[in-house]
Design a protein that fits this description.
This protein starts with a helix and ends with a strand. Helix content is 27%, strand content 42%. A hairpin with a 6-residue loop joins strand 3 and strand 4. InterPro entries: Putative_PNPOx_2, Split_barrel_FMN-bd.
Amino acid sequence: MDFLKEFEMTMESSATLALATSVDNAPNVRIITFYYDNQNNNVVYFPTFKQSAKTVEISQNNKVAFTTIPDGKVGIVRVKNAMIQKSDLTVHDIKAGITKKYPGFEATVANAGSMMEVYEIHFNEAEVTVGYGNVGKLTL
């Protein structure tokens, strides 16, 4: 099985992922929309509101993990030991990529884009699950 191809298909078609953060041994998980550019296959971009609880947690601990939310059409990507940082991109830079998967994002940007910022999740390894027991690990 071509796990790189499955990874790219999953990242390009999944609309949301579960992002796990942790501060002072208190884990937290939230569902976020994201943008994945297959030209830069070890970075995920996501928008968030400035000074949200999420950004405060990230400033205290930039180590995160995530998994795509299964939709039954593609596999699942899981990443551990990732690093997160604020991006130089704006929500307008990633709007088309997110809107393609989550059309409601366009209205969010129109109404609240100035209150948002973009973060990047950088990772070197990903685990791809395609069906029961069919798991592959990728080094990107």
